[in-house]
Amino acid sequence: MLNRLLLQFYTSPNNGKQVASLPDRRRVLLLHSEIMGPATIDVKVSRDPQPTRLANFQDVARVVGPDSQVPQSGPWGLGGSIVVIGDTLHLAWTGPHGISYTQAVINGDRWSWNHPRIILDGDYRLGDLFQIGESLALTYHQVHDRQTESIGVYWPDGSRPQQEIQRGAPTFAPVVEVDNRDRLHLVWSDTAEQVYYALLAQPGHAPQVELLGPGRQAAIGSAADRILIVCESDYGHLHYYFTDGDQWKRNLPLTGMSPWLTSDQLHSPQLSRDRHGVTWLFFADNTRRSTFWARWMGKEWGEITNGPRVHYRPPHFDFNLLPLGRICVEKNPPPNARDFGMLVTCEPPIRQVEYRRERVPDLIPSSSRKVLFLDMLEVAATENVGLHVETADKHPENPLMQLGPAGAFDEDRVFNHGSVVFDGGKYRMWYGGIREPRPDEPALPWWDWIYCGYAESEDGIAWTRVNVGLVEWNGSRDNNIIPGPRHAPVVFKDDGDPDPARRYKAFYFWNSGEHLEMARTGKYGRSYDPRDEKFLMDLFTSPDGIHLTRHAGEVAFPGEQARPLSTIPQSVFRDEDEPDPQKRYKAYGFASLNLRRRGTTHLYSPDCLHWTVHPEMPLIDPAVRGTPPAVGGPAGQVHDTVCFPYEGYYIALYQDQRHPRSMPVELAVSRDSESFRHVRPGSKVIPVGPPAAWDALTILPTMPVIRDREIRIYYGGGTERSVTDSDQPRWVARPGLATLRRDGFTSIRLAEDQQMGSVETIPFDLSRHPLTLHVNVRCAGGSSLRAELLDAVSDAPLPGYSLEQCQPVTGDQLDAIIRWQTKSTLPTDSTQVRLRFELRRNLNSPRLHALWFRPV
């Protein structure tokens, strides 16, 4: 049931026409001082073609308001919309006397405004502003009396007469989709929460009006020959309608089917189409205080994915996401746009608006990188298939090492975090070993229990502790302790460092308890002032990973960031693809925002000594991930995280702390190292073991070892055990191994009840040089995979490259070349094409993991 505030909220346009692009690719924003009701309206323009934040924009003019730079524009506007046609920006808004309109001719940084005029005088409200052919038009809502209202279309240039579409019960203004035949498709809802659709084949013709069903605040878009409509439901979720031929598929559940979002309050759907012709749905989630998106995959919506958000820094770090009141996503960006521009406005009384973007990648066949099906952005359509997260195979000889003997430094835990590196033909392990103080021994804080142990293996399965003789323990140096790194020993081999003495790098990031000890007593040989917005860390360099040289470093929280309780990376790497030298080294791991709330931290550095924490922390947020969402506490946290570059992606394995006694590992992915998307939340890459297993409670992930055929993830498995009948259970951890096939983080598979399905890529340009097409696919049980090349415009197979001419791929193939009869290379011409793969089941479904191209 609509209340007074929702009635006011829905009178503002929900059309995405507050973000637009100029011919030179700069973005224009229309900002309202209020999320609903009377507001001042400002225009801003970006300083460059690819803005990332509102700070990248400069003011153009206040166009509506008491102090407007545009004369006679009026004291306020209820909601405005902009459209750019050529070098002219068109602006319309609802004012105190009806709908007003102005325009500005843009010449570089010069904006020449026309005097505004009221084009619809009376009790009118703007719905949508749009281009049809070479003309500009708008939709409106008019109030006649309390029982009678109407909606219609109006042409500001007077080229066509005003046309009423429907008159009747109280309603809201329509939004519009213009198809490739210049037909108008209008959708709106009434105050009784019913959705109406109208087709206006030509201006002046009688519209075809149809009541579709329940819903409110509808958005409309198109995909190929389908019309898509997404609405809010009265249960706080989204549902949708779409045309299937001449028939409507009505009131289909969309978000309500997701176990991830089942308890959430969702609103403000927006539909837009990217440069590849794929239609996206964006919406806001009040519960998680984040945006989300999904893409239309031809016959249904694809994966629901978390998107941009607005964050801040509360003193206690109890919750740092702001509530989202409205999102405005650029409607159908121009063909050269690399992303969607998005305005995110907070709910009253918070007066904050931010610019965000969602990137749209290309499929480039000349690239040497593979396409992994993680966020599915290279996929344009699917039929009868879905995305699956692969579960890593735990090694049958797990755990790989036993606890140390009585009295040893690793008597209780052999792998409380650690690192494994393959170098010189052998596997090398640095691990956190723990022996808890016994009741008759002096009590120590937990971080003083931990030492770094060292072990080696020829095959990565059978491990031997290596006596290095560097640290005295119980009166002897006859042990495998490495001095320096302790809790979460992070070690990697830096092949990019020209100095052999610095080839190995190890790290120790001091925790909050240690910082307080430093401040109180000067313990650990470091001084620390708690008033400083920084943490301390140590870098250890070494030629061999054993004999370490210590260098004192620090972690900075610049600008308005507030320092969390602690930030402890579990993975560090040198990023060869990073263009910014200040971000050459990247670190990811665990952040304790406070003792009740934890998430994923990200740091970057030019030299491994001077680290800067990313301002949006946590990057992987438990409030966005949780099911149900939880602000903090022992449940619903994201704990340890490792991240690593792989084929142009940044892949994160994070510990999902659903409960203090259940911490499996799940998957997230980023394309820019900063914005992470959860991949099928709830799917486990490494699950905890059964109740009696050695890894029954927790999985501690590490940076994987990538080999030719497999991805080796060494992990610490934790449980509790009683040493004697009278003892309290003690936490125990040992190392284990879980493996994935190469590229095998996810796969595309057939739905359980389907024998055949397909997956189709976004369009791409063929290379002028001969290329072969490769796939990583597992076709077990007699299943098979075929492919065809389609002309991107006609959808017809290229001669010689149809499914019928493709040689089926069968068996387990890490690197299979797709061949068509006698052809093993793709054509070399300027045709834009798409790839379509056909998956066919016999006993099992094929599993498609990756595709890539290779020059001949």
Explain this structure to me?
The chain has 856 residues and is mostly beta strands. It has 3 domains: 4-360, 7 Propeller (Methylamine Dehydrogenase, Chain H); 386-390 and 746-855, Jelly Rolls, CATH 2.60.120; 393-741, Glycosyl hydrolase domain, family 43 (Tachylectin-2, Chain A). Helix content is 2%, strand content 46%. The protein has 3 helices and 61 strands. A hairpin with a 2-residue loop joins strand 18 and strand 19. It is globular and about 95 Å long.
What's the SSE blueprint?
Blueprint: H1 4-9, E1 19-21, E2 27-32, E3 41-46, E4 57-64, E5 80-85, E6 88-95, E7 98-107, E8 110-113, E9 117-121, E10 124-132, E11 135-143, E12 149-154, E13 163-168, E14 175-178, E15 184-189, E16 194-200, E17 208-214, E18 216-223, E19 226-232, E20 238-244, E21 247-253, E22 266-273, E23 279-285, E24 290-295, E25 305-306, E26 324-329, E27 339-346, E28 353-359, E29 371-372, E30 379-383, E31 385-389, E32 393-394, E33 418-423, E34 426-434, E35 450-457, E36 464-465, E37 481-482, E38 490-493, E39 504-509, H2 512-521, E40 534-542, E41 549-556, E42 566-574, E43 585-594, E44 597-605, E45 610-613, H3 622-625, E46 637-646, E47 649-657, E48 665-670, E49 676-678, E50 698-700, E51 705-706, E52 710-721, E53 730-741, E54 746-750, E55 756-761, E56 764-765, E57 771-779, E58 784-791, E59 811-817, E60 832-840, E61 847-855
